[in-house]
Structure formats: structure tokens, C-alpha cells
Amino acid sequence: MDRDGVINKSKVVAGKPFAPTQICDIKILPGVCDALDLLREAGFLNIIVTNQPDISTGRQSLNSLAEIHTYLQQKLPIDDVFICPHIEEHYCQCRKPKPGLLIQAASRWGIDLTGSYMIGDRWRDIEAGQSAGCKTSFFIDYKFAEPRPKGSYIEVSSLLSAANKVLSSNHLL
Fold first, then answer.
1. Alpha-carbon span 29 to 96, nearest angstrom
2. Residues 118, 21: Cα–Cα separation, whole Å
3. Residues 118-151: tens digit of each pLDDT
4. Which helix (H) or strand (E) holds 55?
């Protein structure tokens, strides 16, 4: 799953979401802990895959990012966090919509991506899940001033809504 807009609230300016850069700015969204507990109880791993270009642009330090992820992992049942610190111009393989972060997570944790779900709030998240071969992608639509995802996905209102859809399907692990 993505981080900003799925796990924690994004700051939205002129219709565009921005990641919090300091731990004091982190606001965990309603229902997130319940959703993560439900998924874990059903046998899923809760893994965050997140683009964090503020590292490359100098708007955030690696220490600040590490503090945020440590905080989230202490407060929530999160198994791992994978980050892409790059900007678009770096042409890396880990920046979503490319599937690199999902492939890294699958490799480290022995995950079959064809039985996995991607949950995100931006077109990049959904297309990364599609590119990685995830079973289904869930899109939390905040109506940002940016393109919508292409291809097939399921629109949901929150992480908890996505978790309930995953768990109500007949495709449980």
C-alpha cells in the first residue's frame, strides 16, 4: 500500500497532495489501525511502498523520514516500508508507477504479487500495482487535480473500505 493518503493524511495545496516532512505533521487516517489489524489477522503482510522525492529535492532529510517510518511502525501493524527517494528525472526503476518497490518487497518477503493487492490514492500507485501484476488495485479517490489511473481498479473510500473488500472476496490467502 501507499503511505500518504492511505495511512496518513496528505497536505493538499491547489488540488495537489504533498507528503508530511516532519513527524509532527503525521496524522493517521481514521480506520487505518483497524484495517491493518484485519489484514494481518487474515494472513496478509502490511507493506508500505512510497515515493518520497522530498529526499532528493532537499525538502526532507533521511533522518526525518526514518523518524516518520519508525513512528508509524510503532503505532501501527506495519511489516515493512520501501521508499523511492528519487525525482522523475532520475529515471529509476523504483519510482511508482514503475513496479520496482513492489518487486523489492516481493523479493524480500517471498510474496506472490499475483495474489497481492495494491492500495493507493494516486494514479502512480494503481499503475505500479498493475505493472507488478497485483491481483487487484484499490483506488482511494480524493479528486486530486491530476490524472486518474488507467486500466482496471476498484474505487474505495478508505483503507478500511479496501480491507473489507479484500476480506469479503472469496480469494483470501
1. 22
2. 24
3. 999 999 999 999 999 999 999 999 999 999 999 9
4. helix 54-57
Q: How many whole angstroms separate alpha carbon 94 and alpha carbon 31?
A: 28
Question: Rounded CA gap, 35 and 39, in Å?
Answer: 6
Residue 165 has pLDDT above 80, yes or no: yes
Task: Give the domain ranges of the chain.
Answer: 11-168
| DSSP state letter for 58 | T
- Global pTM? 0.94
CA distance 154 to 162: 9
Is the domain defined by 11-168 classed in CATH 2.40.50.100? no
Is residue 93's pLDDT more than 60? yes
| Angle (deg, nearest 10), helices 123-132 and 100-109 | 50
Phi, psi of 21 (to 5 degrees): -110, -5
Active site residues: 2, 4
CA distance 99 to 105: 10
Distance, in Å, from the CA atom of 134 to the CA atom of 7, rounded to the nearest integer, reads: 20
Q: What are phi and psi of 95, to 5 degrees?
A: -75, 120
